Amino acid sequence: MDSTSTLQLIFYVVSPLATFLAVATAYLALSKQSRPLVLVYYEPADFGSAIDIVICNHGNGAARNIKFSEPIPVHCWGIEKPSDDISEDDFMSFIIPVLAPGKELRYDGGQYAGITSIIGDGKEISAKYKYKSPLKIQKEGIDVSILDIRHMKRMSARHSVRQNLSDAMTGTNDTIFARINKTLTTINQSLQAISKSKK
Predict the structure, then answer these.
(1) Residue 146: beta bridge partners?
(2) Taking the domain 35-152, which CATH number applies?
């Protein structure tokens, strides 16, 4: 066999192999890009000391029929100590039909002491779901999250402007607004009394 025939043989063998590897690499990359990524985590709420639990799809594909390895703790109230009303019967144990890419579901997780009494130093939870590959083949995926709020222990609990103003006017906090409000109420009552006495 001369050198030309050898080169042709190598070309016939290597060329399809290189094409196959290129196609396989492209498919794997596309498959990873179309896969969902379902994460579960706690996040400070927009008001007071409340903490939300968030279920979010950070991937690029829709996740369907999402099931969790165990019920997700919600409504675990208590700042300094856990509330007596915490019940595991209230925890989330339902199936989420679909969660589109970039979408999230947000629920009342509770407060620091209440949540810590359930998850301790961290709790592992798995999200199992179905999704479709680029070739529309149905596949199963599973993502693992660690529920942990220890990093929130020293975080400040700032209220919204609306909540602060409401607290100031209603006297929840001892502010100049609350004192003015009480003074105006007293003056109004005095004027009403004077008005009634003149009738």
Answers:
(1) 124
(2) 2.60.40
